[in-house]
Amino acid sequence: MGFLGFLVGWIVGSQQGRTAAPAAPGAAQTQAAAETQAPKLLDQAAVQALRNTIDRDPGNATARVQLANLYYDSEMWNDAIKWYEEALAIDPKKPDVSTDLGVCYYNLNQPDRALEEFQRSLSVDPRHTRTMFNIGIVRAFGKQDLKGAADMWMKLIAIAPDSVDGQNAKRALDGLKSAHPEIGGGSATGSNPGSGG
Questions:
Q1: Nearest in space to 122 (alpha carbons), one of 173, 87, 159, 163
Q2: What is the rounded CA–CA span in Å between residue 129 and residue 170?
Q3: Whole-model pTM?
Q4: Is the separation of the CB atoms in 164 and 191 below 8 Å?
Q5: Could you tell me which of 48, 130, 145, 148 has the fewest CB atoms within 10 Å of its CB?
């Protein structure tokens, strides 16, 4: 149960170009540290400045993403969803944004919606490692589909074994197989991680 409790808080947002996010640790943050951080307080001045930008430039997807990121950091999932969706309506080819949107849905206990957004991300970039890692998390914990989680993590490990997400997938897969030997398959740290689905 210790492994499962540790992994539950491990869903990771993309949010490129940002320094920190409570539910979205970057490469420099440890997963354990990310789990203990409190949500950031919403910066009302930054919110207002971005809203002013959006009012002046209604087609500005970047400002919408930045606004959504502020809400995301404050764990205000519904507000983040609104702005991520608006940004994607303007520019649908942003896998980082649809991944972050999926994380919001997952945090609102909507795993099916999260998986839909992750599939949107993969339709733009089939090798988007952050999305692939999160699919495993949602399959394991949101859908209780341990085989589906293992398959996705093995696929991720096969295409990006040395990436941060690939390393996280190796640890997650090894822990999953340790806790649930019936999952089977090869070791995530072996030379042949297996095929994914």
A1: 159
A2: 13
A3: 0.79
A4: no
A5: 48
